[in-house]
Amino acid sequence: MDISDISSGVGVLDKTAVIMGALASGPATLAGLVAATGLSRPTAHRLATALERHRLVGRDLQGRFVLGPWLAELSAASSEDHLLTAAGPVLTALRDTTGESTQLYRRQGEMRVCVAAAERTAGLRDTVPVGSAFPMKVGSASQVLLAWEEPERYHHGLQGAHFTARTLSGVRRRGWAQSIGEREPGMASVSAPVRDPARRVVAAVTVTGPVQRLTRHPGARLAKVAVDAADRLTEAVHAS
């Protein structure tokens, strides 16, 4: 992209737009940014690192520049109403299929917040009211919301967590997470990711219940239906 093609008369904004446009095509090293934008190496580095501080630009596991998480959060916010509208029927169907309580969690800073839920109608329940917030250090939903994060937030999130990098590697490989007694003794859960059109994880669908019902391997029974429910919500986000 040539700066002259998008000139607004505000040089720093034009250069920023060129960098963001280059990263929209995929990850880039500093040398790659220089080649793609025509900016000098010092200018490209200065602007890219400044954008990184504002979370408009991030880094991948190879240290390359990528579009940052704030863009995903803005996109998620714009589609949140549609996601929440779709969540009710999907969570209810998942509850009826599994016989267990179901929730939808979104990340807010260092917490995950329940933004929708369908509670089990009888018997021993794990009630999670909408608006409940839990630390990002425990639970299968936290694993899902952290597993695909940008490196800086990923490594920060692992500090003091009840799960490890090896656990999250397994989450990425399988496409779902499980936990036993992390958030509350005697409780288990299975979670799967909801993604935006850029494939970034924006929410986690969770099935929760006592270990005595879910067993110590809850994913064996619940992973497929949790993933199917999350995929339906992903489709709803894409359609918004």
UniProtKB/TrEMBL annotation:
The keyword DNA-binding applies. One of its GO terms (molecular function) is DNA-binding transcription factor activity. It comes from the Bacteria. GO terms for biological process: negative regulation of DNA-templated transcription. InterPro entries: GAF-like_dom_sf (IPR029016), HTH_MetabolicPath_Reg (IPR050707), Tscrpt_reg_IclR_C (IPR014757), Tscrpt_reg_IclR_N (IPR005471), WH-like_DNA-bd_sf (IPR036388), WH_DNA-bd_sf (IPR036390). Keywords: DNA-binding, Transcription, Transcription regulation. The keyword Transcription applies. Residues 10-69 form the HTH iclR-type domain. Residues 70-239 form the IclR-ED domain. This is IclR family transcriptional regulator.
